[in-house]
Amino acid sequence: MVNTIDKVLVLRTCNPYMTSHNGFVWPRTGDVEAPDWDPKPECGNGLHGLLWGEGDWSLLRGELNAVWQVVEVDPADLVNIDSAKVKFRKGTVVYTGEMSKAITMVLCHQGNFSKMLATAKETASGDSSTAASSGYSSKAASSGNSSTAASSGYYSTAASSGNYSTAASSGNYSKAASSGNSSTAASSGNSSTAASSGDSSTAASSGNSSTAAAKGKKTIAMVSGIGGQARAGKDGCFALAYLDKKERPRILVGHVGEDGIEPDTWYQVVNAKLVKA
Question: Which is nearest to 42 in space by CA: 79, 81, 74?
Fold first, then answer.
């Protein structure tokens, strides 16, 4: 975890081969620099991402096997292209992995708390803290045991960090991420995402084509919308809704370690059966 606050964090994604535009290969950790840097405020000739996770989330990869990264950048190397994204000359990759940890790391970083407070966005830090925001593309982040973050509106994001923490977001394409043992992430709306990390954590999403992922031992993931995908950790379970031939809603439950169900693997319903996504 980054401890300095004189640097900013940029959220970005890669394909599984760690390549981006023009075949540039990103490192999984350590220093990275654009070979064709040009400070003009236009797309190209630099490294790109979302500063503090703010901007056009449609520019991030939506595939289930996408690789999420957090890059530490000196503000002097940043160029704002538009409200959708930023580019930078060089930085240091401090995290590569899953969406839930990447989002939580960015939104719950101390530097982001300071920035969010300055711009009147909702944020909270400390045990049993609470943060709430509303409106399109809104963001809420809280840090500390038993903390809560909630946001509402299309493309909204909620992230919480700490044991027994809770993150909840509502609205189409919304995202909720929580980190910590016994944490909970819940999202509502079509194509929404819920992701939690930590033993006994829970992830739940509602809305068609939504996803739920819970990483850790004895985790639970649930999707109540049609056409969703879910995964759970060792000794965990997940539930997926679907429509039968008579268009009646049904639910299939997968128990990790039973009937061939594997841990940390995405599943969906095809012909009334659980299959790998």
Answer: 81
Q: How many CA atoms lie within 13 A of 109 on its CB side?
A: 28
Quote the CA–CA distance of 20 and 50 in Å, as a whole number: 15
Number of domains in the chain: 2
Query: Does residue 78 lie within any of the structural domains?
Result: yes
pLDDT value of residue 2: 40
Res 115 pLDDT > 60: no
pLDDT above 60 for 114: no
On average, the pLDDT of the chain sits at 84
Same domain for 227 and 173?
Answer: yes
Domain identity same for 186 and 254: yes
265: in domain: yes
Pair 189, 207: CB distance under 8 Å: yes
139, 157 Cβ separation under 8 angstroms: yes
**149 and 81 share a domain?**
no
212 phi/psi in degrees, rounded to 5 = -140, 130
Residue 82 and residue 199 in one domain: no
Whether the model pTM is above 0.70: no
Distance CA 112, CA 110 (A): 5
Question: Contact at 8 Å (CB) between 140 and 122?
Answer: yes
Task: Please tell me whether residues 40 and 138 are part of one structural domain.
Answer: no
Whether residues 137 and 89 share a domain: the answer is: no
28 belongs to a structural domain: yes
Angstrom distances, CA of residue 31 to CA of 26, 73, 179: 10, 10, 26
Instruction: Report, as an integer, the average pLDDT of 115-133.
Output: 56
67: domain range? 8-97
What is the b/e burial string over 182-217, where b = at least 16 CB atoms within 10 angstroms of the residue's CB? bbbbbbbbbbbbbbbbbbbbbbbbbbbebbbbbbbb
Using one digit for the tens of pLDDT, what is the confidence trace for 190-199? 888 888 888 8
Element (H, E) at 114: helix 110-118
